[in-house]
Write a structure and sequence with these properties.
531 residues, alpha+beta, four-stranded antiparallel beta sheet, two-stranded antiparallel ribbon, globular
């Protein structure tokens, strides 16, 4: 079979995507799969509101749904009331358009079974979750064909495996699956594909599809409109190619009209929705950017930096220097740099609960072009075989970190350098390591210290920061001093087992150490917070 390596790579990656969806589906204690929650709910709301309840403005049906399935996160931030009294969804409707086939499958199953046809029962959840994975799998096979036009079978195979399994893409395809990323990932592959097809043989079909894809992507996330740079700059890698490109465009000027018309058709559903609900064709959903002062910590920060937690993406950038001869050179470089700038300039730079930088995942098909170029260059080098053990380690590191992220060892919001260093590849860190989420103090070599018990206690009462009452089951307070160094400096260590009579979701253990007129206050979380 021709190009067997890349075919097997796509099959392997597809199986891992499905396996991770199954593995991270917790059905213990009667729990049910619930993917349409938080931000994902905001994208999905259009479908049950319009098709099942015929109520997208008052949302009278939603309180009962939220009470049953706990989908909003406590407050319905996914919609806001306008001056005319109607609710308007915060998230745009392009994702819902792409979710429609999965929704209809789930709806048909619910109607023909004992499940509630309410838009949130198990048939909908499973259909949506696996439907999102299907979009990605289709995109991967199509991306494989694109890469094989320019690169070898082996380079394409390695690139596809690392693109998914060594990055945060797997998290947002398999686990947090029905947010926007999987669907827009597919759209990026499509716009590259239609662009190539038009440049090979210009036709109204490819021009129209290019415009439609850009339009739908724009109403998934408005910032994705910059994907128009991909067809615009394709085949402009040098003066000669640029001249031929613009001559081709000039001889097919009518195709520009088709691109514009079908692009408008793509965004039309959103304009109609806004007009019906907010009495305006363009509605401000409240997003903000600070383009002149972007947050580079999105890339380099220990909180959730792209280069820190998914280091393989460094090759995405290095790949820019190895695509000089390719027709996509300017498309990839200009789009990618602008896309990164837009992402790091968003005012809420943490992007909520996030593993690495999730806002870039959908555009990985564009990065894949430069990435595969550098992969091929490495494989052709005399030390090229070293890529395989390095790649295996990067995949292993990423899969461990995804496991850590979903058990909140790798914290979704509060990561820092010292804590990350201690929990690296540790799926079950001890409480001392976990305390580094809240403090930078850590005793490295406990064997080098001698300890003296100051006090023991149990069954005493203390007041928690959330005004609930906790009970100390057992506690030991020790003074620790270095065996080798004669010093007045000592550590005070408290080991305690604490039982909360109420929830300790946000509970913290606070201590105040008083010495003369000075005091030191410390605070650490009582329980590993749940993502």
């Amino acid at each position: 079979m021709k190009n067997i390596f890349s075919f097997v790579a796509c099959i392997l990656v597809s199986l891992v995507l499905i396996q991770h969806r199954v593995a991270y589906t917790d059905l213990s204690d009667g729990r049910k799969l619930n993917v349409a929650t938080w931000d994902a709910l905001g994208y999905y709301l259009y479908l049950p509101a319009a098709i099942i309840y015929n109520d997208a403005t008052e949302l009278n049906w939603f309180p009962e749904i939220d009470s049953t399935y706990d989908v909003s996160g406590g407050v319905l931030y996914q919609a806001q009331k306008t001056d005319n009294g109607n609710y308007v969804f915060k998230y745009l409707g392009g994702v819902a358009v792409m979710q429609l086939p999965s929704f209809l499958v789930g709806h048909a199953i619910a109607l023909s079974s004992d499940y509630k046809a309410d838009g949130f029962s198990p048939p909908y959840q499973y259909s949506l979750a696996f439907g999102a994975i299907l979009y990605c799998i289709l995109g991967l096979f199509l991306l494989r064909g694109i890469l094989l036009r320019y690169f070898s079978d082996l380079a394409t195979a390695v690139s596809l495996v690392l693109l998914v399994l060594a990055t945060n893409l797997i998290q947002y395809i398999s686990i947090d699956s029905i947010m926007s990323h999987s669907y827009i990932f597919f759209l990026y592959v499509m716009v590259i594909y239609t662009t190539i097809k038009w440049h090979i043989k210009p036709s109204v079909l490819w021009a129209s599809l290019t415009g439609l894809v850009i339009g739908i992507a724009t109403i998934c996330r408005p910032t994705e409109a910059i994907m128009f740079l991909i067809p615009l700059l394709w085949n402009t890698q040098n003066k000669e190619a640029s001249s031929k490109k613009w001559q081709l465009v000039k001889s097919h000027q009518s195709h520009l009209i088709y691109i514009a018309v079908f692009g408008f058709i793509g965004i039309l559903p959103q304009l109609i929705y806004w007009k019906l609900t907010a009495d305006t064709f363009v509605f401000n959903v409240g997003s903000k950017w600070v383009f002149l002062n972007p947050f580079f910590r999105v890339l380099f920060g220990w909180e959730k930096g792209w280069f820190i937690y998914t280091p393989v993406v460094i090759l995405f950038i290095i790949g820019f220097f190895y695509i000089k001869k390719f027709p996509f050179r300017k498309s990839v470089i200009v789009f990618s740099l602008l896309n990164i700038w837009v992402v790091i300039a968003w005012f809420d730079w943490r992007y909520g609960a996030t593993y690495s930088t999730r806002a870039l995942t959908q555009s990985y098909p564009v990065f894949a072009l430069g990435f595969t170029a550098i992969i091929e260059r490495i494989l052709n080098h005399k030390w090229g075989l070293a890529l395989f053990p390095i790649g295996i380690f990067l995949v292993f590191l990423n899969l461990v970190q995804i496991d850590q992220y979903n058990s909140t060892v790798l914290h979704y919001n509060d990561m820092n350098r010292k804590y990350y260093g201690k929990i690296l590849l540790d799926r079950d860190p001890n409480p001392i390591k976990m305390s580094l989420l809240d403090t930078d103090e850590y005793l490295n070599n406990e064997k080098g210290y001698k300890s003296t018990v100051i006090a023991k206690g149990n069954d005493s009462q203390l007041s928690c920061t959330n005004d609930s009452t906790c009970k100390i089951v057992s506690a030991t307070i020790q003074a620790w001093s270095n065996k080798r160094i004669s010093s007045q400096r000592k550590w005070i260590r408290i080991d305690a087992t604490i039982k909360g009579t109420n929830s300790v979701f946000s509970g913290r253990l606070q201590s105040t150490l008083q010495l003369g007129d000075s005091s030191k206050v410390s605070s650490i979380r009582l329980a590993r917070p749940l993502a």
